[in-house]
């Protein structure tokens, strides 16, 4: 009985944490969405159109980023989301 009560309490805390915005979400502009990778990852760009490891190591986890909605990628010259074919 104690096991069941403990399990129910754990489930309740988990539900409250998730629904209570315990998981950080970035407020992204239209055409972008919030992602949370740990370890942090770099978004697809014109130069590298796949999600890839960040060049700098030691970036903190738990910080959400905004990635372009697929099939768009980030143009690193303009910092805008563009179609892969429209990369400058």
Task: Give a nutshell description of this structure.
This protein is α+β, with helices and mostly antiparallel strands and 88 residues long.
H/E topology pattern: HEEEEEE
**β content, as a range?**
15-25%
Q: What is the CATH topology descriptor of the domain at 26-86?
A: Laminin
CATH structural class of the domain at 26-86:
Mainly Beta
Q: Give the number of helices.
A: 1
On the 0 to 100 scale, the average pLDDT is 83
Strand order of the largest sheet: 1-4
Q: How far apart, in Å, are the first and last alpha carbons?
A: 64 Å
Keywords: Signal
InterPro entries: Ser_inhib-like_sf
Signal peptide: 1-20
Structural summary, described in words:
The protein has 88 residues and is α+β, with helices and mostly antiparallel strands. It has a domain of 61 residues: Laminin. 20% of the residues lie in helices and 23% in strands. It has 1 helix and 6 strands. The chain has a two-stranded antiparallel ribbon with strand order 1-4. The longest helix is centred in the first third of the chain and has 18 residues. The radius of gyration is 18 Å and the shape is elongated. The protein starts with a helix and ends in a 5-residue tail after the last strand. The model has no long low-confidence stretch (mean pLDDT 83). Keywords: Signal. InterPro entries: Ser_inhib-like_sf.
Outline the fold blueprint.
Elements: H1 2-19, E1 32-35, E2 41-42, E3 52-53, E4 65-68, E5 72-75, E6 80-83
Antiparallel strand pairs: 1-4, 2-3, 5-6
